[in-house]
Amino acid sequence: MKQLSMRSKNTLTGLLFISPWILGFILFTAYPLFYSLYLSFQKVRITTEGIQTTFVNFDNFKHAFTVDALFTQKLLTFVQELVLSVPIIIVFSLIIAILLNQPIRFRNFFRMIFFLPVIIASGPVINELISQGVTSIPSIKDYAIFETMLSADSLFSSVLLYLMDNLIIILWFSGVQFLIFLAALQKIDTQVYEAAKIDGASNWECFWKVTLPSIFPMIVVNTVYTIVTFSIFSLNPVIEHIQTNMFQINTGFGYASALSWIYFLLIAVALGISVALLTVRGRKNYA
Hints:
The chain is mostly helical. It has helices spanning 6-39, 59-66, 69-99, 107-120, 123-131, 144-151, 155-165, 167-186, 190-198, 203-231, 237-246, 252-286; strands spanning 42-47, 50-55. The mean pLDDT is 84.
């Protein structure tokens, strides 16, 4: 019997270690994923004799775009919120990371305070906070300057209004990104800053020429993480609409599966566009 080489033994050992994950992925992720794709082309009925399916071609997808106006409306609202929220979350977490990377007193305490909402806040907690109106800045809409900015009906006023109404949500989504940025900032060699200062660079120039290029890969990572986290948020109205249709008699699992795949494709497109834009931008500026 031919003896296995060391490389083959290492390969088999590696496969043995990851085999539980492979089996778990096939059983609990891959199979439900492709089964939902199959159901999206079916009319599904749950009877006492079991699940009965009838092939309906693309009717579920056509129904989503031509009949279900509520779904398309929620989908457009989600895209608008995604376009607004992701840059705000990335910039906000980067600013907080830079501030808490400075040698200030009680720095670790402030880091813990900022990350605390990520630990204690879950979907039901956030839902309760929203229902109590504590996710927005209280009484700020009563100020004349705020009313003046809102009356302008511009992109700036829309962004400002969204920021004021969703402050806690943005804080909640910024915790992990803040940690990633903070770890990246601490990896930058301080001698680079010292060399830049000797050459006459200001703090502003150091940020654009040293800090930002050094942490740019983390901006891409945080953007992907933010889009995914924002998309699977339990209070997402698109997900709530899919769950509602899942248990209705006239729609059911088949239509809900079609909605899920439309939503999945939309997220995939958003991720592809974001990564492509950031990659092109990074190669152009920092290559």
